Recover the amino acids of this structure.
């Protein structure tokens, strides 16, 4: 090669010119990182957030040629801002697409709710509420970081977080089809695989409190029944009267997993009075609302479970505590792990053991038997 400074011939692999000392090529320790291409935009930090900026043209002002920019800020990371540059460059955020996140959800819901069961829609509705702070914002202005922050701040376990991601994806697919946005941001959302919700089981004293409250406190029978059957809240609430097999004194229900779908759960003798009263109530459902219609998860939690726990002064319990209580009751009785897994709707015993917790009574019973 020829030195660009003194024009003398140098070796092709030379780093410096042996005549004038000019640096000829970059050393490997000083290789510049790949830059974004010209015209693709850039990102810069403004305060605590990042802003995307693209050049959309040039204009002359006072005899000088200056750039015209289009910017959009509020991104939590530089990557999010850089990824948004293409949308900003092509101006694909349509001026007419002013629907809020909540309005888009309601439009999607009207079109989609007939395709799935009411209980599944109730699950999506509960998950949707954790995006509450974004509801009034235009869907076209939202970023991946804002959506991800709602998932990260949700105090619930993996199941709810996965539901949040699912319902968000469905809403965005609807928005893309209707030209409200250009891409599905939900595909970039993730759920922390190690996060688990807190769902402690009822103690024996608390379970006895619930039993004594039947007849004096509304819905104590619903909660007690769930503790002795292991149905998930939405599974039990969707049970219809034809699910009861009188000949075998068993209920057939469940739908969340393959192992739990249409599983047979024999009923404990303690539940006979509750079932008799519920079967006499005028409704297609065994555990309906007061008007006989289907009760969803949200209604059960807000108007049944929480008021009952408050009245009985039982703290730190959620509707899923009933299912964990059932798993603990199974732990303390004889029977094969395979049969116990079938009762609770698990494909193997390892998942059932995850639901079971080590309590003082069980541990003391083991020590006493030594």
């Amino acid at each position: 090669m020829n030195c660009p400074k003194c024009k003398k011939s140098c070796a092709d692999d030379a780093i410096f010119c042996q005549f004038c000392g000019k640096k000829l090529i970059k050393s490997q320790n000083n290789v510049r990182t790949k830059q974004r291409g010209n015209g693709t935009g850039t990102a810069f930090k403004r305060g605590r957030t990042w802003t995307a900026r693209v050049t959309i043209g040039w204009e002359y002002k006072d005899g000088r040629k200056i750039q015209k920019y289009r910017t959009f800020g509020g991104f939590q990371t530089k990557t999010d801002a850089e990824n948004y540059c293409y949308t900003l460059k092509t101006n694909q955020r349509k001026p007419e697409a002013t629907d809020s996140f909540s309005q888009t959800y309601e439009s999607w819901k009207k079109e989609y709710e007939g395709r799935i069961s009411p209980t599944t829609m109730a699950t999506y509705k509960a998950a949707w509420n954790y995006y509450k702070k974004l509801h009034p914002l235009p869907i076209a202005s939202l970023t991946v970081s804002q959506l991800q922050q709602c998932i990260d701040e949700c105090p619930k376990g993996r199941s709810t977080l996965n539901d949040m991601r699912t319902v968000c994806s469905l809403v965005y697919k609807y928005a893309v089809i209707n030209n409200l946005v250009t891409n599905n941001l939900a595909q970039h959302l993730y759920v922390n695989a190690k996060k688990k919700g807190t769902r402690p089981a009822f103690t024996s004293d608390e379970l006895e409190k619930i039993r004594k409250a039947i007849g004096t406190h509304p819905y104590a029978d619903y909660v007690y029944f769930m503790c002795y059957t292991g149905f998930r809240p939405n599974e039990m609430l969707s049970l219809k009267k034809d699910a009861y097999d009188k000949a075998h004194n068993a209920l057939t229900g469940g739908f969340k997993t393959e192992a739990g779908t249409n599983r047979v759960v024999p009923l404990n003798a303690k539940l006979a009075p509750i079932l008799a009263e519920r079967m006499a109530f005028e409704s297609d459902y065994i555990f309906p609302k007061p008007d006989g219609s289907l009760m969803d998860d949200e209604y059960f939690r807000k108007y049944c479970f929480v008021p009952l726990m408050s009245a009985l002064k039982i703290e730190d319990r959620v509707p899923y505590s009933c299912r964990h209580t059932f798993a603990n009751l199974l732990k303390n009785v004889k029977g094969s792990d395979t049969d116990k897994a079938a009762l609770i709707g698990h494909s193997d015993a390892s998942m059932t053991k995850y639901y079971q917790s080590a309590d003082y009574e069980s541990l003391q019973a083991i020590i006493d038997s030594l």
In short: The chain is about 40% helix and 10% strand.
